[in-house]
Amino acid sequence: MTAGTDSPLTRKLSAFALLNESETAMLERLHERRRSFSVGRDLVYQGQSRQAAYVLAAGWACSYKVQADGTRQIVDVQIPGDFLGLRSVLLRTSDHSFEPITDIEAIEVLSDDLLKLLTQMPRLATAIFWAASRDEAMVVEHLVGIGRRDAAARMAHFLLELAARLSLVGLGGRDGYDCPLTQYHLADALGLSAIHVNRVLRQLREKGLVTFRDGHVSFEDYDGLVTLADFDPTYLDQEGPLLSGA
Amino acid sequence: MTAGTDSPLTRKLSAFALLNESETAMLERLHERRRSFSVGRDLVYQGQSRQAAYVLAAGWACSYKVQADGTRQIVDVQIPGDFLGLRSVLLRTSDHSFEPITDIEAIEVLSDDLLKLLTQMPRLATAIFWAASRDEAMVVEHLVGIGRRDAAARMAHFLLELAARLSLVGLGGRDGYDCPLTQYHLADALGLSAIHVNRVLRQLREKGLVTFRDGHVSFEDYDGLVTLADFDPTYLDQEGPLLSGA
């Protein structure tokens, strides 16, 4: 994948702002510091200070927190175009860890470069702020899911959210998408046991709504799944740019 | 309370950036559009579009989402100096509602004014981005709490987080603080029943850790409560400014 207008980050931020040439060029320059990370090796660990942020260019990752008793909560999953650890640059110390779910390619954005970008390219900064707001809206949905949705609605909502996010960067749609998450990832993300995850996926499949098998999610009845999950994608704000060109 | 250097918002943002005169003056100007709201009347409702954001100047509020089945999840509580609906200006449609918990005073920030501030005063914008990142870190903690902490640790963590946040704006500390939350608010925030909330508060009191009675939280054994909750306030990033003066 090339940098610039074709990169997932540029595609994503373009949903918020029509980016001008110097803004696109700045995003391209970011792509020079591209690094590879292997599955299972944390990019950023909980408690680490003054680290870089990353933009995921290819592959999947997840952010998580581990409790003193060893239990783990996955906070969110990251797909191409997503920031990893953006919040931690501003808050100085990472409050969570990032783990590659597949082998990944990620663009390193040094803490000082990011602060410079934020304070010197305000329109781009606002677009990044939009992306961060969207990330927060997703964490809010996950909180509501764990607090108030039953296991089937929680799973359905999570799979539909991923479909909408992937479609924004050209990696999926209403038919389905490739998904490297295991039942253990789903369990840690949804606050369920792995056995419960299996049972819920079987129920959704038997109802003819969705099948998750061999690394692929297939929607058999997209609208039925939306109804079950009470899924309203407004919080993802993918309907076109708010900031016009400048 | 006067505007400018004494306002809770200025106090809070000063923990991130040493603000210069024009930045402080801009925050003062915001304070001109000050409005009062009564308990129980929502400021912003779920699904509302193109609304203003608010900065809470006095009193307490909460953000929440209601599910189709009528259950409610409180996402966070807001105290003086906090933004209400900042995310919704960028995302255009509010993904949640805000309700005053007490009578409140709030500064209205029109959507266009906020976008102008973000794109024209980048250092102030970065400070606001910091505040939003901190809000997100709190939602993440609430997610981890509901997903992975038992009821006592969840309650202890929540009460300690509020103490740290209130101390930043001069409204509380390690002794305790005034707190207008009812057992119903605590239940909706922590994913517990009101009866369960009562039982947990009684346990914490009988262990000599904390008493919440007549609108006041008193820490009897602050360090013991920190241990029980495994509370590490690093995510609140209150240790002093990252951006120096300019």
Describe this structure in words.
Two copies of one chain form a homodimer. In chain A, a hairpin with a 2-residue loop joins strand 9 and strand 10 (216-219). Chain A has two domains: 4-136, Jelly Rolls; 141-236, Orthogonal Bundle (Arc Repressor Mutant, subunit A), CATH 1.10.10. Chain A has helices spanning 8-13, 21-30, 86-91, 111-120, 122-148, 151-168, 183-190, 194-206, 222-229; strands spanning 34-37, 53-58, 61-66, 72-78, 83-84, 97-100, 104-109, 176-178, 210-213, 216-219. The first copy, chain A, is an alpha+beta fold and 246 residues long. At the A-B interface, strand 4, helix 3, helix 4 and helix 5 of A face strand 4, helix 3, helix 4 and helix 5 of B. Chains A, B: Residues 149-223 form the HTH crp-type domain. Chains A, B: Pfam families: cNMP_binding, HTH_Crp_2. Chains A, B: Keywords: DNA-binding, Kinase, Transcription, Transcription regulation, Transferase. Chains A, B: It comes from Alloyangia pacifica.
